[in-house]
């Protein structure tokens, strides 16, 4: 009986998590997330795995199981479900967040809400949901069994012993799972390069309170919108010190609404006020909880900083609290945003200055504890860049228990093949990506992106063919007369040399000219 795990995304980068579990008769996915695009992807907002390979196993692919509601785990699900009809399983909050996405993309999907200790069967696989602590509620590890094979897939976790909501990380439960004899542990590597233990979410309360107490004017607070535990602490502080709250920004408004519906966020009725009501109050009686902790375009923070909001402008005395780590790739945007706020006389407090953010991922000592609880035959590090995955394997040298654990390095595009409880091979499939332009809702292929990059860097050359004559036009740069003559001469010299149709030949020659003369690859268009 062979079982395969194929890695579509998440091993070799932070983001785009997607794993396929496959037996001879059935298959299911764990997570389908996005990766946020940085400035090197012109016009692209998000990147998702290319799941073309799944079409070949369409008949046995049954379900997608979601570990939690972060974008790097659920952001690609609506796109996936446009291609495949799958059963969807996830925690309460995860499913609520997804339902908003389904609504926005106008797709109808039947969802299954699971809770801690639930067990489901997908063909010959049995999957148990195991609660873990993270920076969002309803996060699960998955204990996946298929006959003798026992796999523990814990994507994101930390061992929070004093979470703001819910129960502490259940150490005993993981020791029990360890005693069952786990074949492979697939586990979070994001923070394994950090020493010690990741502090508890509740540990930031006092520093956060201090920052609020020092503010004399309006306070604007921003964090990851899905972090309801962070928002809950801010609500408590505001109710304690007598500030009313305005929630502004679509992601945070949605999150607060869901949090209240699910009972994860209790806000007194008179605490929440509108923007108009806030204008009637003294500045030191108001707190705005806003979107935009990464300086995202269109977020409230970005719009205030860019002076795009008529009713909400930054001014002297305002304090902006950014309670989040900046995700690599967003540094420039956020820095520009902060500078604009200072221009208008506001001040900004971020995590460089005060301990107002903690990570949701396990540090080195927690990763070692996890290894000790589980004592698996194989450790397969996931959720990390190469340095995180390799460091995770290195940790095995520091834990010395009586079971020999083998560290397995695997990256996107790899297939791990198990026969019974033995890992018998590592194979590969072509791992590609798709690129999403969120405003247009366009999904671009690798080839589209290549063209787009050429376009951004090297512009366009348009050949308008009139039969014997042709004109040349450039977009994005200007060709001087001398070079245009050179190009025309080069075309004359090469026409008829290769056996191609006139249009193909012209395009081919123009491309060669730009490559040879300038080492550039403009997009060349032929028009009749
Ligand atoms: Zn997460």
TrEMBL record:
Protein name: Metallo-beta-lactamase domain-containing protein
SMART domains: Lactamase_B
UniProt xrefs under PANTHER family: RIBONUCLEASE J
Source superkingdom: Bacteria
Swiss-Prot/TrEMBL keywords: Cytoplasm, Exonuclease, Hydrolase, Metal-binding, Nuclease, RNA-binding, Zinc
Annotated InterPro entries: Metallo-B-lactamas, RibonucZ/Hydroxyglut_hydro, RMMBL, RNase_J, RNase_J_2, RNase_J_b_CASP, RNase_J_CS
Species, as recorded: Deferribacter desulfuricans (strain DSM 14783 / JCM 11476 / NBRC 101012 / SSM1)
Molecular function GO labels: exonuclease activity; metal ion binding; RNA binding
Domain Metallo-beta-lactamase, first and last residues per copy: 15-208
